[in-house]
Design goal:
The chain is α/β, with parallel strands linked by helices and about 180 residues long. It has 7 helices and 7 strands, in the order αβαββααβααβαββ. The longest helix has 17 residues. The two termini are about 25 Å apart.
């Protein structure tokens, strides 16, 4: 995103972990050394999280994330999606990529916190995934890619009864004016 904006504060990054924010700042200094176009001040790193984004309403043109659906339980996912809608300007877009499942996952696997942190056990089925994005208030949803992601097996996760080939889905969702 910094490549396209190329202006101080043009990109906002949000992370709840101080060590991650510090590492990002250090990486920006390194990036400036090897990319003549990049300046660390192009990216503002803020303390915060997806449930309470530190940005004013209708102030963001593009929001992006990876593995949001698989980290949060449903109530928090709904809140995180509504936060993205809140901060986006009308016409703004949300680019997201997440693993999805072709079949419902067993409750015991879905409850596995380690598998959730690894972006595996929080997978939703495709139709549920798109419905969650639409319910949040996005008026247009484009599926950009859908491809095999990872095979999870009972030998790796005892709570599975049979292997499941997870897929990855990439979408761009747009905040459109009401009624459009």
């Amino acid at each position: 995103f910094a490549y396209f904006t190329r202006r101080p504060g043009g990109v906002i990054a949000v992370d709840p972990v101080a060590a991650m924010r510090e590492k990002a700042q250090a990486n920006f200094i390194e990036a400036a050394k090897i990319n003549s176009w990049f300046q660390p001040e192009f990216v503002t790193v803020l303390a915060g999280n997806a449930l309470d984004l530190p940005a004013p309403s209708s102030s963001v043109t593009v929001a992006a994330q990876n593995c949001l659906f698989n980290v949060f339980l449903q109530a928090d996912l709904n809140k995180a999606l509504s936060e993205v809608v809140r901060v986006l300007k009308v016409g703004g877009c949300f680019a997201t990529s997440d693993p999805i499942t072709p079949t419902p996952l067993p409750d015991a696997f879905r409850a596995d916190a380690i598998a959730r942190a690894r972006c595996l056990s929080g997978c939703q089925e495709f139709d549920d995934y798109v419905a969650a994005v639409t319910r949040a208030g996005f008026g247009r949803v484009e599926v950009r890619a859908r491809f095999p992601y990872r095979l999870v097996t009972p030998s790796e996760f005892g709570s599975l009864r049979e292997p499941v080939l997870l897929e990855s889905v990439e979408i761009v969702a747009y905040k459109v004016p009401d009624g459009a």
